[in-house]
Amino acid sequence: MNTIKNLVAVITLMALTASASALGLRLEESTPIKYFTKEDWSQAKQVAKTALEQGKPDETFDWHNESTGHSGSYTVLRQVEIDGRSCRDLLIKHQAGPANARGDYRFCQMQSGEWKTMGRAPSN
User: Fold this and answer.
1) In sequence order, what E strands does the chain have?
2) Cβ atoms within 10 Å, residue 1
3) In what side-by-side order are the strands of the sheet with 60-64?
4) Residue 28 belongs to what domain range?
5) Which pLDDT value is given to residue 2?
6) For residue 14, what are the contacts with CB-CB under 8 A and spacing of at least 6?
7) I need a labelling partner for 34 at 20 to 30 A (CA). Which of 12, 24, 75, 92 fits?
8) pLDDT attached to residue 1
């Protein structure tokens, strides 16, 4: 469940980043999460989990909700080990309604097996 909570946190961060660059637009009107349905969230979370658990560098995992037209992708940018933990940097993209958002985030697997976001991924 922490993976889902962390993913929501990352998506929220992406939303804030996207809205900051959208001059003159209100936060809730300029981010995909405003338009996500429960089915969108379910698909996005499942694909994110697969990307984190099975993804290799340069591999992209897509989701698309046929009923809403909303979509997203998770691309594994890097796989690194930090302090003995397996970590992956993901490029996360989402589109819903008129809004698009993207961002690079680092996730590390904790001893419990859960993935936790470590914030923005460092740029190379």
Assistant:
1) 60-64, 71-82, 85-96, 99-109, 115-120
2) 6
3) 60-64, 71-82, 85-96, 99-109, 115-120
4) 2-120
5) 60
6) 31, 92, 94, 101, 102, 103, 105
7) 75
8) 57
79 pLDDT higher than 50 = yes
Domains held by the chain: number: 1
- For residue 84, the Cα-to-chain-centroid distance in whole angstroms is 23
pLDDT at 10 over 90: no
Q: What is the pLDDT of residues 11-70, one digit of tens each?
A: 544 544 443 444 444 444 568 988 999 999 999 999 999 999 999 999 999 999 999 999
Identity of the residue numbered 15: A
| Terminal Cα-to-Cα distance of the chain (whole angstroms) | 30
Q: In angstroms, rounded to a whole number, what is the distance separating the alpha carbons of residues 86 and 72?
A: 24
Average pLDDT, the chain: 83
Separation CA 67–CA 53 (nearest Å): 27
The residues, ordered by sequence, that sit 6+ positions from 36 with a Cβ below 8 Å of its Cβ are 44, 70, 94, 96
